[in-house]
Amino acid sequence: MNASVPGEGAPPLTDAAVANAIRRHLLRLLRESDPDFDTPLTGETSFDALGLDSMARVGLVQALETEYGLTLEPGLAFDFVTVDALAQYVRAQANGEAIDEKTLLGI
Description:
Layout: H1 15-33, H2 54-68, H3 76-79, H4 83-95, H5 101-105
C-alpha cells in the first residue's frame, strides 16, 4: 500500500492516516528483529521505549519519504520520538502546512 501526497482536489492527509502508516512501518521494522513482536503501538508509543536504534529510526523516516513522496531529515525520528508527534510533523509536511516545531516538541 503506497499513499501519496495529496494533490489538487484530493483531501489532505490526517494525523490518523499518517500515524497508521507509522505503526505499519514500525511493526515491519520491529518484526524483522523479533518475529513474535506483538506489543500494541499507540500514538504515545515512544521510539525510545521500543529500543529503536539509529538504523531503524532512519529506516522509518525513509519509509515515510517513499510512502508520501517527501524529503525528510534522516534524524527526524530522534526529534519527534512518539508516533503522534512524528505523524503530526509528516502530515504538515505532506499537506504543505506550517507547523510550530517547538510546540510539537514541547519546548
